[in-house]
Design brief:
M1 Pyruvate Kinase, Domain 3; Pyruvate Kinase, Chain: A, domain 1; 3 domains; alpha/beta; elongated
Length: about 475
Amino acid sequence: MIHIAPRARKVRVLATLGPASSSPEMIRRLFLAGADAFRINMSHGDHADKAALVSAIRGLERELGRVTTILFDLQGPKLRVGTFANGVVQLVTGEPFVLDRDPAPGDVTRVNLPHREIFEALEPGTRLLLDDGKLVLRVVRVSAERIETMVEVGGALSNRKGVNVPDVVVPLPALTSKDRADLAFALEQGADWIALSFVQRPEDVAEARRLIGGKAALLAKIEKPAAVERLEGILELADAVMVARGDLGVECPPEKVPPVQKHIIETARRMGRPVVVATQMLESMILAPTPTRAEVSDVATAIYDGADAVMLSAESAAGSWPEESVAMMDRIAVSVESDPGYAARLHFTETRPDPTTADALSDAASSIARTVSAAAIICFTTSGSTARRISRERASVPLLVLTPKLETARRAGLLWGAHAVHTRDVASFEEMVGKSKRMALRHNLAKAGDRIIMMAGVPFGTPGSTNVLHVVRLTGSELKGRG
């Protein structure tokens, strides 16, 4: 077994797997290039394909001796128009167009919309966006059977193109029957994270959490204006959040997406939830071996703002340069984190500790690390809550997460700065100190003469009992002990 050293950066890289990256060989190359976690998109492919991806990732985990994170991304409700008699029509700006409940093929005057919930939610004056926002309709009149609109932005509209409804909350469940089947499959496969698409309200997250039943962590994708408006309520129930800029960029004006992104990142950090920034980060690398300067700047901005992870979509899933895309993301992150001004920008967002012992100690650990120039912070955790608290503080030193629960170690793959190790639990204070020293040396996070900071809960093995912070200096002889 090879033991891979912690990354040279603290922000995590989440890579989507797909046709270009489905082989065990390519998954291995993506990991070595810098991928910390892998996204499996349930919008495409069948369960057998996904099971093969999980098998490859877990095999890599055993080979390299490092826990690896798997996120299953549920498709969510997809709203689409019906079909046209000729396959495509040309909608003309200023002309009327009707969406109705009639399943007959459409023409230039009308088309079927097989989603009763939209008819119930709309009112005159609201917008309908078609084909990723390329066409815009304004509602004039609406009834139980017909939505009469005026075309504000025309163009070609073909079969089963998507529909976005940005101005209202559509009473659709966030989990379709397909999502429920995919969720059950993902949990059977040992998913570490479940991503919930098209969240509109906290109730969507509560329903998903009930179905997951603690078997995986839950990430809420923010891609609708309604979700932005109820962001804090959603974050109260979710374990993490994603700035999903694809649909968010369709339903919001493009110029609004950057401030919305910053707002989501700031709110998530303040509330102690990991935050992932996704979609079109290195889009040109789907076809080209290098990104544009604007794309590099976009990734860098997310890292400067304090995102826990940045995500590749089609770049690694279906592009011509998957390995190079991951390597580029890694290099951008290393470069940003090497900037002398990075730490100051990172702490623009104030993350005040909650009035708990664990939060107070996490805040203190970050401050002590700076004051005594510690090499690393080491935390013992069962549930992972201590690791999340320390990660939120964005300490200047690496965070080594030691846990007896494999699922906790795997879920830590989306935490900023965390390097998780699945290891035996400790039973005494002396054992905690000895193991911390050995693990810091073994994972190349400290050397003889360095100070390290330890955090744990006494009695040991009790979730949520973090109440100990201890600073110790390494002598170098600790490596002779057992792991």
